Amino acid sequence: MELTAKRQAESSNWFIKNRWWVLIGLILIGSVIYAYATNAVVTTAVLASTLRQSTPLILGALCGVLGERSGVINIGIEGQMLLAAFVAFLANVYTGNLLVATLAGLLAGGVMGLLLAFMSVTLKMDQIIGGTVINILAVGLTGYFYVSGLTTKGKFQPIPLGPLADIPLLGPVLFRNPPITYLAIILVFVLHYVLFYTRWGLRTRAVGEHPSAADTVGINVFRTRYINVIIAGAIAGLGGAFLTLEGVGSFERLMTNGRGFLALAIMIFGKWTPLGSWGAALLFGFTYAMQTQLQFSGVNLPPQFIGSLPYILTILVLAGFVGRSRAPAAEGIPYEKEG
Amino acid sequence: MTSVPAQDKGKDRAIGAVRRIWRSISVPLVAVLLGLLIGGILLFVSGANPFEAYGALIKGAFGTPVAVQRTLEKATPLVFSGLAVAFAFKAGLFNIGAQGQLLIGAIVAAYVGFAIEGLPAIIHAPLALLIGGLAGALYGYIPGVLKVYTGAHEVIVTIMLNYVAINITDYLADGPWKDLSPGNVVARTPKIQPSAEIPILGNIPLGFIFAVLAAIIVWWLLYRTTLGYEIRTVGLNASAAQYAGIRVARMVILTMMISGFLAGFGGAVETLGIVGRYQPGFNAGLGFDGITVALLGKTSPFGVIPAALLMGAMRAGASQMQFSAGVAKEITDVITAFILFFVAADVIVKWLIRQRDSDDERIMLSSGWGGN
User: Fold this and answer.
1) B202: domain range?
2) Stretch B103-119: mean pLDDT, rounded?
3) Which of B28, B135, B99 is nearest to B285 (CA)?
4) How much is the CA Rg of chain A, to the nearest whole Å?
5) Where are the domains of chain A?
6) Residue pLDDT, tens place only, A174-195
7) Domain tally, chain B
8) What CATH number was assigned to the domain covering residues A50-322?
9) Closest CA to A102 of A59, A67, A144
10) Are residues B341 and B288 in the same domain?
């Protein structure tokens, strides 16, 4: 049903159907051009920083989207990211190879995904508890095995994409980024396509909405959930790897600092869709970037007021414009095969 | 032959009671043992002596009257934040915001504690506690109202409000409510008046007794009043509750306020009974730990107390363990994670101790968490 609706939307009445989004898009483009004309340097800096700030958040949110679309709530994103950040850091310290370190992070996230799938699908444990177990376990393991004084062997540097990188404004913002940031943007569109335009996505959503119906038409509910939750964990792991290999460059205790929970909020904000979550993550990244700018520009406000802005803005946008959001129907309920 | 002698009846009842108690404590007990076992294996594999470590842990938690006092002090705020989260769960709400509500309660109680002078202790301390609780309730009111009137999801709003609360308290402790005594450079409020302090009776902090009383009151409210019945009905099925004439919107707001009150009260007890002032960082994570405590206690008001004591004991013992056995204190988090795992995965534990499975004990919180 959703597929046909999507196809209709793509036809001639696309603009009418999406008039609010078109309007918002035009306003955004207009204000960016105005800002660029007024102060090119600051505008470029803010937008580039927006994208980078949003990277771990969107990766965390994509992890949430994939799991929850298949019917598994994941409040353990924070823990998955933290453990992956730690493992990626250690791999970087001991091998000095950033690619190996990234893969180690992906693997660590995937293993945590496997643990979540085992708890929620096989053991049919309450999923809030499963996620909490992962969060505490990650804090414990990373804290227990943390050794101070380890130094990393470098971090990912921006890769300019040829002539594209020389376009004013767009170049420095979009085409001069380190690899995980590129990867995060690609993943948003890949997951959007996979979830809404492929057989696998249809199956995943069917399992998340009505598992017993999916089962009767021959979809393996357990397998679908396992695979989605493991891949989701690996994506969160990429977010963790971003923190140690691209963002900060080293590991600190509790360095995720609530980003996994923010990602959860962003996922709900984005109504359980990759594109919606990306919008929410960018909004968040933007308010972070603005916060830094405001502090630099010497505005006479206590820093805590500026520090609260992203969160208050989120609440206002949520209460004012987004409103009620609907989760996948079978989310949180372990599937019991009948008969 | 129809009447059984009274003595036997009493005996049967006693056996039944023992069996019921065993049923309810066997799983948590085995879960704790398994958690300690896995923690011990991890300690052993990483080159530490598990017996030495656990010995120090237990000594640090229960070895001396002072150790017991420290355990109770660590457990006290956890009881409150655990009750706050558990209470919201009963109405089907996930209050991740206990942390923020606790911070607001803690700093407001500190203000009432240091700013008002000349009150007798019998009025000052209760007043500060009450206002701290009310501040938490007010902070819980925001996500409740936003959920009811705009549909904003309480999980997002409470997560955001946690960050806002950190900023508000940092601002107050470093701005208008800052300790201006000579020599102080850090962000913190002045020390509270002696009349606002919650005393320690022998080695038992009075705050812990408040915590136990709070658990009893929450149990009574949930299971012995109409309000509690309505709240639980909303939690089981909101649309059915609406159909039955329960004002769901009102219940959601009220639940968030009561939950916020409990968290704020916990923050106030921490300020007035232990820290003696508000200092940023001293309450970090206590609200988040409330989620763990509520889940460990299977969201039951009386389950929260042993869960908080367990976590409090590990907190209190961890520093001793780190000091005398040289083991990083985070091992207690690993142990906690596994205990929670085995409490929830009772299938495994019951299989281990050959107990029959009963459906009624299963907890299921997450079903329908995204719904309204």
Assistant:
1) 65-165+191-326
2) 95
3) B99
4) 21
5) 50-322
6) 888 999 999 999 999 999 999 9
7) 2
8) 1.10.3470
9) A59
10) no
Global pTM value: 0.89
- Cβ distance B295 to A129 less than 8 Å, yes or no, reads yes
Residue of B nearest to A118 (CA): B345
What are the CA-CA distances from residue A77 to residues A109, A259, B148, B341 (Å)? 9, 9, 27, 17
Q: Is residue B209 part of a domain?
A: yes
Distance from CA of A216 to the nearest CA of B (A): 22
If asked whether residues B143 and B268 sit together in one domain, one would say yes
Rounded to two decimals, the ipTM of the complex is 0.88
Q: What angle do CA B140, B144, B149 make, to 5 degrees?
A: 150
- Which residues of chain A have a CB within 8 Å of the CB of B171? 302, 304-305
Residues B288 and B355 occupy one common structural domain: no
From CA A188, how far away is CA B125, in angstroms rounded? 54
The residue type of A211 is P
**Same domain assignment for residues B205 and B304:** yes
Within the 266-295 window of chain B, which residues sit less than 8 Å (CB to CB) from chain A?
291-292, 295
* Rounded (to 5) percent helix, strand, coil in chain A: 75, 0, 25
Residue B43 and residue B79 in one domain = no
CB spacing of B366 vs A315 below 8 angstroms? no
pLDDT digits (tens, 9 = 90+) for B63-84: 999 999 999 999 999 999 999 9
pLDDT in the model for residue B216: 97
**Cα–Cα distance measured from residue B169 to residue B183, given in angstroms and rounded to the nearest whole number:** 21
The residues facing A177 across adjacent strands are A159
Whether B345 contacts chain A with CB within 8 A: yes
Q: Tell me which residue in A136, A304, A326 faces B170 most closely, judged by beta carbons.
A: A304
Structure confidence at residue B366 as a pLDDT band (50, 70, 90): low
Phi, psi of B200 (to 5 degrees): -110, 125
Q: What number is the average pLDDT over the span B358-367?
A: 54
Query: B338: which chain A residues are within 8 Å (Cβ-Cβ)?
Result: 133, 137
In a domain, B182, yes or no: no
Chain A interface disruption, residue of B158, B333, B343, most A CBs within 10 A:
B333
Specify the pLDDT at position B365: 66
The secondary structure of A55-99 as a DSSP string is HHHHHHHHHHHHHHHTT-----HHHHHHHHHHHHHHHHHHH--HH
Task: Say whether pLDDT at A167 is over 90.
Answer: no
Q: Is B337 on the interface with A (CB under 8 A)?
A: yes
